[in-house]
Design a protein that fits this description.
Shape: elongated
Structural class: alpha/beta
CATH class of the largest domain: Mainly Alpha
Number of domains: 3
Number of helices: 11
Distance between the termini: 44 Å
CATH superfamily of the largest domain: Cation efflux protein transmembrane domain
Strand order of the largest sheet: 1-2-3
Strand content: 5-15%
Length: 386
Amino acid sequence: MTRLLCKLFIKHSEDTASPAVRRAYGTMVSLVGIILNLLLATGKMTVGLLTGALAIQADAVNNLSDAGSQILSLVTFRIAAKPADREHPFGHARIEYVASMIVSFFILLIGWELLSSSVDKVFNPTNTLFSWVSVGVLGASVLAKLWLCFFNRQIAQKIDSSVMRATAADSLSDAGATAAVLLSTLIFKFTGFDPDAYVGILVAVLILVAGIKILNETKNSILGEKPSEETVAVITEVVSRYPEALGIHDLVVHNYGPGRIMASLHVEVDGHEDIFKSHDMADLIERVLREEHGIEATVHMDPIVINNPLVDELRDMTLRLATQAYPNVKIHDFRIVPGETHTNLIFDVAVPFEVTDSDETIKQRINEAVRHERPACFAVITVDRV
């Protein structure tokens, strides 16, 4: 079904990097979600009012809010497709993260309202009527929501959309919530016990958990998070194509929304190499990342001394002492400044965020280790948190 819809409504559906194609996908998915959720909301609200089932009525309101979220998604994809301008030089793709956060607020609001009304019904019970029509409507809703979950998940993976991932998660929680309501209805039919209020509480908790999860994921995207392993692997692989590139460090990746990844990195080169040759390599790395992977990169060249026995010896010693003090650290930009009375070892040390020592403590421990082994050497250290 998903492939058929894409074929019918999306031109050049494989060109997912195109803003126009992304907008077309967003429009299609949003319209499907709006229509389906409005149909489900109408059917459930009708059955819920006729039978007096609070859980079914709440489920109907949940579907209505989902339709509203899909309308928000529809607007979002149109804004995200706008090109960069003077006020937004990096484009508008991050609006998807904002929309995902708004969707999470909708979900949390619905969950809280359902929890409140369900708790109230525990203490103030009302009569519920059974109807096989309600069973049919709820069963159809579970199937429809499961399909909508897989539909959104497939498209989200195809175009890397956080909004659709949020909608897929919401649809899955809706399917579970509706299944619980259906089970509650059948229990009431065959046992006479009405678990409507208690199932309503369970459904509310499921909805709240889904909302909190989406909010947390979106918050990380807005605040900024570490680059994905795939992105790091792509950049590392491209740099490794060039033998002149002796190492890579200080990699920083900024994600301005799907299709808008920017990166800066330092590439170590032989300090005795022709600067024009090294600069040409840096330009090639930037071009390959842009043309093959859609990553706008800025490459900084770091010249280092190689094939110098003294520098190599001191570098190896410093790395050994640094890793003894703090496992998993790395050093880069290593150089020495020799003098009559002492030698300065100047370098950066890349320290994981998990190390809780302050930067000054880290510098002091490594410097003390260096002085203990080589009294005439002083470590001049810059700490990089990675």
